[in-house]
Amino acid sequence: MTTDTALWLIVFNVALWALVTILSLLVAYLVIRLAVSHALRSHTRWIDRGKP
């Protein structure tokens, strides 16, 4: 394996891990945002109906 090939593989590996990390964080953000908005909507309906 030449130095250029090894360097390209290292750069590709780092870029791939960065992409996977960014996508994972984006999915986690969207899931948490959806859960919080659902909880707030449910809480608003509970308040509008009157507290038990």
Q: Could you characterize the architecture of this molecule?
A:
The chain has a domain of 30 residues. 90% of the residues lie in helices and 0% in strands. The protein is built from one helix and no strands. The longest helix has 47 residues. The termini are far apart. The mean pLDDT is 94.
* Separate helix tally: 1
Report the helical percentage.
over 70%
State the separation between the terminal residues, measured CA to CA. Answer: 72 Å
Please describe the biggest sheet, giving its number of strands, its sense, and whether it closes into a barrel.
none
What is the approximate shape? rod-shaped
Question: Hey, roughly how much beta strand do the residues contain?
Answer: under 5%
The mean pLDDT is: 94
The total beta strand count reads 0
From N to C, what is the helix and strand string? H
Determine Rg (CA atoms, Å). Answer: 22 Å
**By helix and strand content, what is the structural category?**
mainly alpha
- The low-pLDDT segments are none
